[in-house]
Amino acid sequence: MTPEANVILDVGGDDKGARVLGCLCTRLKNLNYKMHLVVNPYRPETSTAEGITQLKESIEKMSGLSFNSIFYNPNFTYTTRFEDVKNAVEQYSQLFDDPLNQLAVEQRLINENPKYFKELEKHGVQVLSIHRAMKNPWEN
């Protein structure tokens, strides 16, 4: 890793991934690293503020690194509907005192209702458009 490189590591959200980060801790601290926690509120372990906080603190403790931000990524993989995202965004304000800052959403959902996402951006939410490239084993 060089200081000029942009490297994205998706190490999952468990102790195994945190151990990998722990092995890289010293090198990463010497670089201008940014670490983002990606949270899906539709997963049981991250469906509450307590669950998200516990996951965040656990990974930080095991890795020796600190998160810079949280990306909210409400989804049910390929079956996610716009309403699922909208409901999760509304629920966020009930879970946290801080406003939602970053939202990762599939581009197809943004295309369905661009006005809604533009409005979120006007209120300071960074909307990250994502495209799923991974396929399930039964898909061609």
Main β-sheet, in a few words? 2 strands, parallel
Fraction of residues in H or I helices: 40-55%
Going across the major beta sheet, what is the strand order?
A: 1-2
Provide the β-strand percentage band. Answer: 5-15%
SSE sequence, one letter per element: HEHEHEHHE
Question: Kindly state the mean pLDDT as a whole number?
Answer: 88
According to DSSP, the number of beta strands is 4
Shape: globular
User: Structural class, judged by helices and strands?
Assistant: alpha/beta
The radius of gyration computed from the alpha-carbon positions, rounded to a whole number of angstroms, is 16 Å
Contiguous uncertain segments of 5+ residues: none
**Gap from first CA to last CA:** 35 Å
User: Helix segment count?
Assistant: 5
